[in-house]
């Protein structure tokens, strides 16, 4: 079986729903970098991120039949899977217990050192040009999007962290997402 070199989104979805292994390989080759970027912004630790990205692709493969093209694009659907899987992972009891069981020097050294190393790597490799798009948002809107979608905060946690009402967070996030849609449509 020879590899696939180009597929339209519609063809890719059709083949994935038929459980075509070559289509899955194409999907992985073309989207793993972008999805890994989302995962590393939330998970931060490379070993955990590798585990999470594997879970993400298993979920995509197992649930592709549920994907509805009328509700959005495949890429957006996969980004949401990556984001939600990453958040679920860092909030899991096993990860939280592992972090609690580390000695204080280990926590300080590994978290601080690794955080900066990963952020440097992510900043150097903007997999999908999203930083350029986010730069077009108001700074306070951009911060909300980063906290919600890259750092894994819930809207309540954002409200508490920034000392603003929950309703304000919800309104601003919605406005920011609508503005992002306009920006992305202008770029197409």
TrEMBL record:
Keyword match Cell inner membrane: no
Similarity comment: Belongs to the sigma-70 factor family. ECF subfamily.
Gene3D superfamilies: 1.10.1740.10, Winged helix-like DNA-binding domain superfamily/Winged helix DNA-binding domain
PANTHER family: RNA POLYMERASE ECF-TYPE SIGMA FACTO, RNA POLYMERASE SIGMA FACTOR SIGZ
Keyword terms, alphabetized: DNA-binding, Sigma factor, Transcription, Transcription regulation
UniProt-recorded name of the protein: Sigma-70 family RNA polymerase sigma factor
Domain RNA polymerase sigma-70 region: 27-94, 133-181
One protein family per Pfam: Sigma70_r2
Stretches assigned to coiled coil: none
């Amino acid at each position: 079986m020879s590899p696939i070199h180009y597929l339209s989104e519609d063809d890719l979805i059709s083949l994935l729903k038929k459980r075509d292994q070559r289509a899955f390989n194409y999907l992985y080759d073309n989207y793993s970098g972008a999805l890994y970027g989302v995962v590393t912004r939330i998970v931060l630790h490379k070993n955990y991120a590798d585990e999470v990205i594997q879970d993400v692709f298993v979920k995509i493969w197992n649930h592709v039949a549920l994907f509805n093209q009328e509700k959005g694009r495949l890429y957006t659907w996969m980004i949401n899977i990556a984001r939600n899987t990453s958040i679920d992972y860092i909030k899991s009891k096993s990860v939280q217990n592992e972090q609690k069981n580390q000695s204080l020097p280990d926590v300080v050294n590994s978290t601080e050192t690794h955080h900066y190393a990963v952020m440097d790597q992510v900043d150097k490799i903007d997999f999908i040009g999203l930083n350029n798009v986010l730069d077009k948002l108001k700074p306070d809107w951009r911060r909300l999007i980063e906290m919600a979608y890259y750092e894994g905060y819930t809207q309540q946690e954002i409200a508490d962290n920034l000392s603003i009402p929950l309703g304000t967070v919800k309104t601003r996030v919605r406005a920011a997402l609508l503005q992002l849609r306009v920006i992305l449509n202008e770029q197409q």
